[in-house]
Structures are given as structure tokens and as C-alpha cells.
Write a structure and sequence with these properties.
Layout lengths: L28 H22 L8 H23 L2 H35 L5 H5 L13 H32 L2 H15 L3 H16 L7 H25 L3 H9 L4 H28 L4 H6 L18 H10 L5 H33 L6
Helix pairs in contact: 1-2, 2-3, 3-13, 5-8, 5-10, 5-12, 6-8, 7-8, 8-10, 9-10, 10-13, 12-13
Length: 367
């Protein structure tokens, strides 16, 4: 009897497609689509500008419509490759990016306008000469730059000790009605208009020296310190509150007095945030014009003495160059834009420095 083995019929295996991994765009697809959309939008607005349809190149419009085009493009491409579900997810993400772009449009527009208009006079002469005996082209803002550094530096020396000690009192020692009163007045000072600070400094020194026409740099520093102190207090107070109470209790358990605990434990732990707050407060007041115009005044000459005569600062320099234009109008406007660009760069450098300092002085946590 013979046994015959029967084999099952062979079937061709069909490929199995996984809907979770198949049809997936590369990781860099979103970036390239965004760059392409921005390039197309920039080219369209460039053609409109070259063709004379628009008077100026609209950078804000180019960025907005570029991101809007990106939203439509990423949705269409993702729907064709990845399906409708993933396309909806990418569309919502792109819309969030569009909302972020809309919030940034004023900053983009101001930065682009200031750079394009300020570069013609952003040269060596601008930073090495003052406006003494200059009535047309030429001249610079050296006297304003020096005045800004002196006035802002003096305001920082006044504000940081007062603001930091106030924050330490409120967090570590303050209890009861006195602490609540200080907190209330700090909140009120936060909303004081800058011109009121200038009027306060002017009235203070006019009464002290019995001179209604008093103008000097230290008065401007006092006016700026009125604006800086509440910012320093608030930022330092929040940083001190972030220090864990366990660190304080551990120091107390070792018999360390409270003032030494604050000095050796609390402040080193929060120093990065405190320095960041100080740098932000400096950036907040360095562009103030009204208080400095009232109490510091303006001049075309160099002045290195905070306690004598008028002192020019960069915000007042920009204002006077634009408001008091001479026969050569374009020269005054170019100097004003160059001064504004210098201010923006100083504020940007201060913010970068704050981040670097925060990173350097941040407490090292073992992982």
C-alpha cells in the first residue's frame, strides 16, 4: 500500500500594510514646506514692490501669507500621503504656528523697518562723534550713548539694593500689615506712568536745590529707579519664593542663623533668576524718553558728570533728531533711525546676557 503525501496548495503572501506607519512624511517635510511657502510669499511681495504696486516691501504681509500658505500646503500634502486623520493633526499644529506668527508680526515689522532705515548711518562715525557744532550731515550719538550708560548704570545701583532687600523682607521676614502695605505700594508703583516718575524726580530736586530749571543726569537716574524698583522687587520676590523650604529648614537644623541662611543658602539658589530679573528691568527702562526729557534734558556735547549740567541719552537723542529736523531733513531722520537701531541692539544684548547669566549661575542639580 503506497502512501501519497498531499501538499497544501501554495498561496502568494499578500503584503500587510500598517496604517500607523505607512504613508508617512519625512521629519523635515514641515520645515521645507514652511521655507518654501515663505520663499513664495516673499517673492510675490517682492514683485509687487518692484512693480510699484506697493510703496514699501511689506515684510509683515510676506511672513503672514507665507505661514498661511504653509497651513494649506501641509494639510494638502499630508492628506494625500498620510490620510485625513494625520492631515487634521498637522493642520491644527500649523494653525497654532499661524497664531504665534500673528503675535510676532508687530515685532517683525518694527525690527525690519528699524534695521533697513538705521543701517545707512550705522557706521564708525556715528559711534565716535557727538552732535557738537553739527547742523547737517555727519555727527553721531557718542554723547547719547555715554549718557545712557551712565544714567542707566546709576539707576541700577540705586534700584537693585533697594529692590532686592525689599524682596528679602517680604519673603523671609515680612508679616502683618506692614508687609501688606509694602506689597500694595509696589503694585501701585508698577503701574505708574513713566512721565510721572520724571515729574517726581524734577519736583524733588527743584525743591531740594531751589532751582526750577534744574537738569542733570542723576535726576534721570532717580526717575528711572522709580520705574525699576517695583520690577526688581516683583521678580526677586518670585525667585525667592521658588527656593524650597527644606533648604531653609536644613540650615536652621544645623544651627545657622536666619540672616546667614538667607545669605548663604537662599540667595545663591535663586541668584540666576534674580540676575535675570535685574537685566529685564534694565531693558525695561533703558528706552524711556519722557522722564529723561523732563529731568535730564538734552545737549549736543559730551557730559561725563552725572551731577552737573544736562545729559543726553539715546531715547531723547532719537526724539530730538526726529522732532527738531534742520535743513537737511534726511540726515536727521537717518540719525534717528540709527539711534533706534542701537537701542534695540542694546536691549537684545541685555536679554541674551540675562539668559547666559541665568544658565551659568543656575544651581547644578545632580541627575
Amino acid at each position: 500500500m503506497s502512501l501519497t503525501s498531499t501538499r497544501p496548495p501554495s498561496t502568494t503572501a499578500m503584503p500587510i500594510s500598517n496604517s500607523l506607519t505607512a504613508g508617512k512624511l519625512p521629519r523635515s517635510a514641515s520645515l521645507w514646506l514652511l521655507l518654501g511657502s515663505l520663499a513664495v510669499s516673499a517673492a510675490v511681495f517682492g514683485v509687487l514692490f518692484v512693480g510699484g504696486i506697493t510703496a514699501d516691501y511689506n515684510i509683515a504681509g510676506a511672513v503672514f501669507f507665507g505661514v498661511l500658505l504653509f497651513c494649506l500646503t501641509i494639510w494638502s500634502v499630508s492628506r494625500a500621503v498620510e490620510g485625513s486623520r494625520k492631515a487634521k493633526d498637522r493642520l491644527v499644529t500649523a494653525l497654532v504656528s499661524l497664531a504665534f506668527t500673528i503675535a510676532l508680526l508687530p515685532l517683525i515689522s518694527v525690527a525690519f523697518t528699524t534695521i533697513t532705515n538705521g543701517l545707512p548711518r550705522f557706521d564708525i562715525e556715528f559711534f565716535t562723534n557727538s552732535m557738537r557744532n553739527v547742523v547737517g550731515e555727519g555727527g553721531g550719538a557718542l554723547h547719547a550713548l555715554v549718557g545712557t550708560l551712565l544714567v542707566t548704570g546709576a539707576a541700577t545701583l540705586i534700584s537693585v539694593p533697594i529692590g532686592l532687600l525689599t524682596a528679602i523682607y517680604l519673603v523671609e521676614y515680612g508679616r502683618g500689615s506692614l508687609a501688606r502695605g509694602i506689597t500694595f505700594f509696589v503694585d501701585v508703583m508698577t503701574g505708574i506712568p513713566s512721565i510721572v516718575a520724571g515729574l517726581f524726580a524734577y519736583a524733588l530736586f527743584a525743591l531740594l536745590f531751589n532751582d526750577p530749571g534744574i537738569r542733570f543726569g542723576f535726576g534721570g537716574a532717580v526717575a528711572l529707579s522709580v520705574l525699576m524698583i517695583p520690577v526688581v522687587v516683583r521678580s526677586s520676590e518670585e525667585m525667592l519664593k521658588l527656593v524650597p523650604n527644606e533648604l531653609r529648614e536644613a540650615a536652621f537644623a544645623l544651627g545657622v542663623p536666619k540672616w546667614l541662611t538667607v545669605l548663604k543658602v537662599v540667595l545663591p539658589t535663586s541668584i540666576a533668576g534674580i540676575i535675570t530679573g535685574v537685566m529685564i528691568s534694565i531693558a525695561r527702562v533703558i528706552g524711556e524718553t519722557a522722564p529723561l526729557l523732563i529731568i535730564a534734558g538734552f545737549t549736543a556735547s559730551m557730559n561725563y558728570d552725572l551731577f552737573s549740567e544736562r545729559m543726553m541719552t539715546l531715547p531723547v537723542y532719537v526724539y530730538t533728531q526726529y522732532a527738531n529736523q534742520g535743513a537737511d531733513t534726511q540726515a536727521y531722520i537717518d540719525r534717528a533711525w540709527a539711534g533706534a537701531l542701537t537701542l534695540i541692539l542694546i536691549v537684545a544684548l541685555l536679554n541674551v546676557a540675562a539668559r547666559l547669566i541665568a544658565k551659568i549661575f543656575a544651581p547644578k542639580i545632580a541627575r
